[in-house]
Design a protein that fits this description.
The chain is mostly helical and about 170 residues long. The radius of gyration is 53 Å and the shape is flat.
C-alpha cells in the first residue's frame, strides 16, 4: 500500500468510529490548543504581576535604606579664622613662586632669542657663508674654471686652481 491509500484508510476509520467519550467532535483538538494557550497566558500574566509587585516593594524600601548624612561638627570660629589665614598665606606664597617662575621663563626666552640672533651672524658673514657653499658645490660638480671666475677669494677657488694645474 502506498501512503495515500493508507492515509485514506485511516481517515475512513476515524470517521466511522466517531468521537471518543469525554472529548468534543473536533478532530484537530482546537479547544485543547486554546485551553493550553489560555493557561500559558495566565501564567505569564501572573509572573509579570509578581515581578511588578516585587519591583514596587524594592523601590518603596530604597529611600529608607539610604544612610542619613551626619552634619559636620561646628568648629570654633577663632580656630577656623586662624586656619583660613594660614591657608591664605600658603596660597599667597605659592602665587609669588609661580610669578617668579614665569618671570624667569620670560628672561630665559629672551636670552635664547638673543643667542639665536647672535649665532646667525651679521649679514656680511651670512653672505660669505653662502659664497663658500656655492663654491663648494661647483667644485664638487668639477666646474673649476667657474669657481675661480665667480668666487676667486674663497678656499674652494684655491682647491680648484690646484686641480686644474694637476
Amino acid at each position: 500500500m502506498n501512503d495515500h491509500a493508507l492515509r485514506q484508510l485511516l481517515c475512513d476509520a476515524d470517521a466511522a468510529a466517531g468521537a471518543p467519550p469525554g472529548r468534543s467532535a473536533d478532530p484537530f483538538g482546537h479547544q485543547l490548543a486554546s485551553r493550553v494557550q489560555k493557561r500559558l497566558r495566565r501564567r505569564t500574566q501572573s509572573q509579570m504581576a509578581g515581578a511588578s509587585l516585587l519591583l514596587c516593594a524594592i523601590l518603596t524600601l530604597v529611600p529608607f535604606m539610604r544612610p542619613t548624612p551626619k552634619p559636620a561638627p561646628v568648629a570654633d570660629s577663632s580656630q577656623a579664622k586662624t586656619e583660613l589665614a594660614l591657608i591664605r598665606l600658603q596660597a599667597d606664597s605659592q602665587a609669588a613662586t609661580v610669578n617668579r617662575l614665569i618671570q624667569y621663563q620670560k628672561s630665559v626666552d629672551m636670552r635664547t632669542a638673543a643667542a639665536r640672533k647672535f649665532h646667525r651672524g651679521q649679514p656680511l658673514d651670512r653672505l660669505q657663508q653662502q659664497r663658500e657653499n656655492a663654491a663648494r658645490l661647483l667644485t664638487q660638480d668639477r666646474e673649476f674654471r667657474r669657481v675661480i671666475e665667480l668666487f676667486p677669494e674663497t678656499h674652494w677657488a684655491s682647491i680648484a686652481r690646484e686641480r686644474l694645474q694637476s
